TrEMBL record:
Gene Ontology molecular function: tRNA (guanine) methyltransferase activity; tRNA binding
Matches recorded under Pfam families: TRM
UniProt record, GO biological process: tRNA N2-guanine methylation
Organism, scientific name: Gloeothece verrucosa (strain PCC 7822)
Keyword terms of this UniProt record: Methyltransferase, RNA-binding, S-adenosyl-L-methionine, Transferase, tRNA processing, tRNA-binding
Descriptive protein name: N2N2-dimethylguanosine tRNA methyltransferase
InterPro entries: SAM-dependent_MTases_sf (IPR029063), Trm1 (IPR002905), tRNA_met_Trm1_C (IPR042296)
Length: 366
C-alpha cells in the first residue's frame, strides 16, 4: 500500500508516478478552493488509473460526487479497492469507457461537471476540445501532456498535426508547450462561442499540466493568441501578431538568421493570481509550505512575457560568469523592470527586460 496526502491506496497494474505529486496537490487545492467558492463539487476523472486523484478529490477537496473512469477494464479491481469507501458512501462510481465517448455522453445527458480531469499519457490533443462538452459553465478543466518533444519544437510537423500550430525549438520551449495546450483549448472553446481562463500552468519533471476555467463568452483575440518569435542570432524574443506576419525582423538585423516563429500559441496571462492567492492561503492552512512557495512564484510570473531567459544563455552570450539569480533579479527591479524566478526552470528568470539589458546588468554586477 502507498500513501499520498490523506489517500492510502494500491497501484496494481496501473501507471503511477510519485514524482508528479505536485500536479495532484495543485489539483486538489484548486478543487478545494472551487468547492469553497461554489458550495459543491462534482468531479469527472476521465483517465483515473489507480484512482489516487479521484480518492484525493474525495478525501481532501470534499467532492460531493466523483466519477472515476478508465478505459482499461483490467484496472477495475484496484479502482474498486481504492475507492471502496467513497462508493459505499454514495459519493463515487467507476466505469470503463473510452474517454471521448464518456465526455460526449455526459453532454448528451446534460450531466455537466465542476472539474473534468484528463490525465493521460502522451499528447492531450484528442481530448482538448471534447472535454469542454462535459464541463459546467464556470467549471474547471485539468489537462496533462507528457509529449514534450512535440510541443517543445523537436517535432514541428507533428505539432502542426496535433495542435494546429508549428512549434520551434528555443530556450523557453517548456513554457511554449504549456501555451500550445492553452491556445488549442482556447481555439476549440471559441468555435462554440465560449472561452477559457488559465487558472495555473505547471511544468514538472517532464509533465505539463494546465488548469483552465470555462467561460460563457470568447476570450480569443489577436493580442492573446498569436506567435512567439525567437532570434537565434542574438537570443531575443518578441511576440508577433497575425497582422505582423510577413514583416518580422529582429533589431540585431542579422541577415543570416531572421527570427523563427512558433504558433499560434496563447500569449496572455499564464495563471490567475486571485485564484492562486486562495490556493496559497489554503496551502498554508494545510501546512503545505513547499506548495505555498511554488504558488507565490507562479503568482509573480502570471503577467510577464511568454518566455524566460536561462542564466546560462545570459552568461554564454555575455561571455561572463553569471551572478547569482537573485542578485540579477534585484538589479533588474532596481532599474524599473519586472523580474522574478520561474517555476519552469530553477536556472532561469522571467522579466520584461530584454536579454541585452539582462546581460548588461549581469556584467555590471561582476
Amino acid at each position: 500500500m502507498l500513501s499520498e496526502g490523506k489517500a492510502v491506496f494500491e497501484v496494481g497494474q496501473a501507471f503511477y508516478r510519485p514524482e508528479t505529486r505536485v500536479a495532484r496537490d495543485l489539483g486538489v487545492l484548486a478543487a478545494a478552493v472551487y468547492k469553497g467558492d461554489r458550495g459543491s463539487l462534482r468531479v469527472l476523472d476521465a483517465m483515473s488509473g489507480c484512482g489516487v486523484r479521484a480518492l484525493r478529490y474525495g478525501l481532501e477537496a470534499d467532492a460531493d460526487w466523483i466519477w472515476a473512469n478508465d478505459a482499461n477494464v483490467e484496472l477495475q479491481p484496484v479502482l474498486e479497492a481504492n475507492l471502496q469507501g467513497l462508493i459505499q458512501s454514495g459519493r463515487a462510481k467507476i466505469s470503463h469507457q473510452e474517454a471521448n465517448k464518456l465526455l460526449f455522453d455526459c453532454y448528451y445527458r446534460e450531466d455537466f461537471y465542476d472539474l473534468v480531469d484528463v490525465d493521460g499519457f502522451g499528447s492531450p490533443a484528442p481530448f482538448l476540445g471534447s472535454a469542454l462538452w462535459a464541463t459546467k459553465m464556470g467549471g474547471l478543466l485539468y489537462f496533462t501532456s507528457t509529449d514534450g518533444r512535440t510541443a517543445t519544437g523537436h517535432l514541428p510537423d507533428i505539432s502542426l498535426r496535433v495542435y494546429a500550430a508549428y512549434a520551434r525549438c528555443h530556450p523557453s520551449a517548456h513554457e511554449q508547450a504549456l501555451r500550445l495546450m492553452i491556445g488549442n483549448v482556447q481555439y476549440h472553446a471559441a468555435t462554440r462561442g465560449f472561452g477559457v481562463e488559465p487558472i495555473f500552468s505547471l511544468f514538472t519533471r517532464g509533465t505539463y499540466r494546465v488548469m483552465l476555467r470555462l467561460l460563457s463568452s470568447p476570450c480569443l483575440t489577436q493580442k492573446n493568441y498569436g506567435f512567439l518569435g525567437y532570434c537565434h542570432a542574438c537570443g531575443e524574443y518578441k511576440t508577433v501578431s497575425w497582422r505582423s506576419l510577413g514583416r518580422v525582423s529582429c533589431a540585431c538585423q542579422n541577415s543570416q538568421k531572421s527570427p523563427v516563429l512558433s504558433g499560434p500559441i496563447w500569449l496572455g496571462k499564464f495563471h490567475e493570481p486571485l485564484f492562486l492567492e486562495k490556493m496559497l492561503s489554503l496551502a498554508k492552512q494545510w501546512g503545505w509550505f513547499e506548495r505555498a512557495e511554488l504558488l507565490s512564484v507562479m503568482q509573480a510570473e502570471a503577467f510577464l512575457p511568454p518566455y524566460f531567459y536561462l542564466l546560462g544563455e545570459i552568461g554564454k552570450r555575455g561571455k561572463i560568469n553569471v551572478p547569482p539569480r537573485n542578485n540579477l533579479i534585484k538589479a533588474l527591479v532596481a532599474q524599473g523592470y519586472q523580474a522574478t524566478p520561474t517555476h519552469l526552470n530553477p536556472q532561469a528568470i522571467k522579466t520584461n527586460a530584454s536579454l541585452a539589458a539582462c546581460i548588461e546588468l549581469a556584467q555590471w554586477l561582476l
